[in-house]
Each structure stands twice: as C-alpha cells, then as structure tokens.
Amino acid sequence: MNNVTYAKVCGGVGLVWVLGLLFVPPFAELVEQLMLLFLSTNAR
Amino acid sequence: MIRAVFQILGIFVLLLALTIITLKLKNQNADGPSVLFPGGELISGELYEGPEPDWSFTDDVFFIELQTDEPLSSRRIFVMESDGKVYVPSGYMRSFLGKLWKDWAFQVEDGSNLAVARTNGVRYERELLRVKDPGIIRGVADKLAQKYAGGASPEAVAEIQQSVDEGDTWIFEMAPRRQQP
Predict the structure, then answer these.
(1) Contacts of A14 in chain B (CB under 8 A)
(2) Which of A6, A32, A43 is the closest to B23 by Cβ?
C-alpha cells in the first residue's frame, strides 16, 4: 500500500489497539500475559 | 513483497511501542500492579496489625502484590513460606532485561527496603532483607520449586540453588519492620 494509506492504517489500528488496552481489561491482560511469556522465555 | 513485509513489521513495532507506553502510563499510579507493569501505591485493603502471622497460608497464594517505597511502585511477585518466615524472589538479575525490569530489587539492595505486601485484601508492612545463607536458601528453593517449577525434584531445587549462588535469582525475606528509634 502507498504511504498515505499505510499511515491511515497505522493510525486506525493504533487507535483501536490503545482503546482496547485502556477499556477492555481482558484484552490488556491477554497482551500482558503474552509479553510476560516472551520475556520469561527469552530474558537470559 | 519486501515493502509489504516491512510495512507489517512496522505495524508490529508500532503496536509494541503503543502497548508499552499505554500500559505503563495506565498502571503507574494505579492501586496495585497489572500482570507485567508496575503499579502505584497499595492503598486499598485492611492494614494488618497484630502478631506475626502464620505465613503457611501463602502456600495457596500464587502471587502477592509488593510495594516498595523508593520509588513508590508495586508489582506482582511469587511468595514462599519456609520455616515460619516468608520470602519473595527476584529472577533474571544478571540479564539485560532483568537489569531494566527488576530495578526495585537493586533499590532494595541499596537500602530502600521498606515494603508493603498485599494478599487476600490485607496489607502487611514489611522490610525486605536479602538472604544468602545456604541453609535458608535450601528451604526456600524447595518451596519455590514445589509451587512454581512443577515439583521439588532434586534437580529443580539444585537448579534454583545454583541460580541463587550465581546471582541470577535474589531471595528476600519479608521480615517484620524493625522499630524506628
């Protein structure tokens, strides 16, 4: 996709993502659990 | 094709950055931590006042919330009872991510060791004291393996003891606060 479209997609996805993290607690917890799993596996 | 790959990668990097920034800001002043991000001061919950509790109840507690005072922040942490005393671990202490992630343990080691622990809705004012005594570590390692490593096999306990010996894992006793003069 071209740069303008890409910027719009990034903006839209980013906005939805942030709103999900702020207002959907199970989603935020799932994301954190995945991050914790990654860190626990790779933090050596 | 390559452009598309980089664009997808860019979105992942953006989402990762947004996640870290959003959750860090969201939780930094919250009453307690989230799964991964530190929280603020532990405010809610009865403040325990009385004789030293029987900490064996923590055998059924997977994690507690631990607040340290300088800087004021809280995090979820494992807990182990051994020989009537209660302990918390801090792992990954020699890894790069650990040095970023476990700053509270370094601050405790430097002397800012007053803490508040919260579990089952009750807060306990404690003092964190790093433990290195092999006899104590053996008992704590046994409980740590039993609760969090699938069982206290000799190999699991030995691995934990080695991790403590090498400085990868630090063990702190959550001792009663000493009376201030």
Answers:
(1) 14-15, 18
(2) A32
**B181 in a domain, yes or no?**
no
Q: Indicate the helix (H) or strand (E) that contains B129.
A: strand B122-131
pTM of the model: 0.84
Interface contact flag, A21 B14, Cβ < 8 Å: no
Among A13, A33, A43, select the one facing B11 at the smallest CB separation: A13
CA distance B98 to B163: 14
In 3D, which of B136, B89, B94, B81 has the Cα closest to residue B108?
B89
Asked if residue B38 and residue B12 are part of one domain, the reply reads no
Verify that B96 and B115 share a domain, yes or no: yes
Domain that holds residue B15: 1-28
ipTM (interface pTM): 0.90
Is the pLDDT reported for residue B178 higher than 90? no
